Predict the 3D structure of the following.
Amino acid sequence: MTATTTHTIGDRVIETTVPVGAHYAEGTILDPNGPLASGADAHADADADAVVLDETVAPLAPWSARLLAGQTLTIVDVGGNQSADFLVYNAQDTLERYSTPDTLAWQQNAYLRQGSILRSNLGRPLMTVTGNEIDRQDTIGGACSKESNTLRYGFHTEHQHGCRENFLAEAARHGLGARDLVSNINWFMNVPVEADGTLGIVDGMSAPGKRVALRAEMDVLVIVSNCPQMNNPCNDFNCTPLRMIVTSPALATKENHA
Amino acid sequence: MTSIADDHQTDSVLAARADARAQAVRTADYMPYRPASTSPVVPDGVDRNSLVWAETVAPGGYTHRVIARGTRLRLDDPTGSACAHVILYNALETNERLNVADTIKIPWQAYLGTGHPLLSGDGRALATITADTSGRHDTFCGTSTDESATARYGSAAPEGPSPSGRSRFLLAAAKHGLSGRDLPPSVSFFQGVHVEADGGLTFTGSAGEGTHVELVAELPLLVLIVNVPHPLDPSNDYLVGPLRVHAWPGAPTLPGDPQFTATPEVNRAYLNSIDYAEARGL
Ligand SMILES: [Zn+2]
């Protein structure tokens, strides 16, 4: 007989033979926190902002949203050290999309931090990191996939759900496909490059409730994979939720209603 | 609180690398076997060293491959609860793809079985069923969608316990540069549907454990296979079994084979496939 597990979906309970990936352990500390806004006086600004979207991304799941120019996305690492694999596109013309090399070359630094500008393949600002509670954020580690898992961990991992599956599934909802996936950002993931060039994913520097805030510099489409990886420390071997909060500056909201 | 992280030493790059490399000795119930000759369940009569594809597809999983003309593709349902949803494409021109309507109309037969061709919309045989010990297949109901899976199971999330067939086909297709517009109706193997006199579609389910279906590729094929419950499967649980896939080289249906002239229609389909293949220098 094929092994089954039991899942509760809303008010239903189903048995399934699908080898669903692991969710966080009982007793895991979760801190949903709240919006993080730009500027030194972050909380004062955040209170003035209007929340236009506030969603939780379940462990292992994909997510996407459109932001208008000027809106801010706060990503909360609710359980700590949970990689938020992240892609961003010009919402008006998705041929313009996030570019790791343009972002890194422009800032002449391999890590993302407060003030980093997320640049497109045309060199233009898509978003700006206006708030950041982690020492450094990753954009060189790429996304996990069932295929690359076989290279890193062995063929026995090929059936496991991965970020590339999430990216493809979510991208398809916006008419995008494999050719639209590029090197991504991994918020809350830690990929040091050592003096001799050695690099890899190691234990994270985040903690429950840590946040990053991104201001849209143009209308953007954001696609996120809440990373399902359980073979390396990018999720602390304990997949937890992400909270996504989109806020509009109070002034911009008034202008929109004018 | 003890956690899985306690079993891993990953606080430096070299420690993380060692931790990753130490995992490679593991196996899983659902995995590809590489090289294919290492398959634990080689079909009877097949030389394991000739295998070009060997894999056990997980419940809710999918697989996909480009296979050469003449390749034999065998699907096994070891538990009697697999459901192999299949779409075929001419690998050289993927706008030529399985046409389920022609596949049942041209042979004058709705139920798939040995000798049944899988036809494209371009008048060619993409594949032929060369063996079938199940006899429970379906050409009417296609596969599940997020809409139908959500209605049945409460969720169709790609990471969840009840993914839809179409969402799995989308992922498989994406890996060959194809998208939703490239997903025609699929056929499914190992879970039967019968058409009643009034047109009613009756789910007849599985023929039991240990059946298999074998196809031969009449052209170079892109094969997409999804293993999810049949849309008419009455269970509100998602209880699909593992699916085994093996492939090895062989010859397409050619003059002299009894199958080549089995019916006038299929004969012309093979002539069309051969005509195409010869012009391409295959
Ligand atoms: Zn991942």
